Amino acid sequence: MISHCIAGRVAMPLCSILILLAAASTAAAREKKDETKQTYHLDEVYPIAPDGTLLLVTEDADVEIIGSDRSDVHVVVDHTLYVRGVVLRADSTPFEMEVVAEKGNLSIRQVGGDYSVGMIFGSVREDYRVLIEAPKSVNLNLRGDDDDYKIRGMEGELRLRFEDGDARIVSYKGEHVEVECEDGSVEIEGGSGLLEGYSEDGEITVEEGTYREMDLSCEDGDLEIENALADDGTYSLRTEDGDIRFTVLSGGGTFRATFEDGGARADSRFGKVDEDD
Question: Domain residue spans in the chain?
Fold first, then answer.
């Protein structure tokens, strides 16, 4: 009887403690179950030289860039993080945009914005948009991860490197394009001069081009090119596990297509000159 009584007295306080801890944890979780949000807003104008370079580094953003007759750069950034559910733990670094105007150039970089959360149930959603109006003559250097781009009316050089996204470039009148993407696609309307590009698990599409020189390669994807040929032009197209489709708008000449586990198709006015295995 003594032994049984001691065991009962030890177990009862332990049970009470467990119940109290569970109740406290549940109450704390209930306090955090409503939706919360963190917001960032930027709406500023910055100087840039007519032939300056605009550098933009972002992640998970919807980016729109518009070329205009203005002499400066208007930047609008809206970022909102929505968290809803029963949150037990949350760690984050503040989202900011670091903007530096120097030597006629403009640098815009995303800083922070990392967020990790432990929750019983719920969701985390991010709304991130960048709108830039810039002089159409400036050069663009864009770097992204999980970004989507819409670029319209630019005339300067364009360098674009991103992963897990898509880019649509329209009414482009520049003379040098350099693109590199993984798990995404690039569509370019217009352009002349030099076009360099590489894509993995995606496509490169050119519409209404007048490029004199092309150097394009693609892995696990297709090249679809619509371009006017220059008499002294150089055109090199390569794919692996993909297809090449080349439509000649005007002109004539010779271009070389290299492919593995795919095929090539050109305008009906062109014939095959040489073939290597």
Answer: 1-31, 33-62+69-140, 175-277
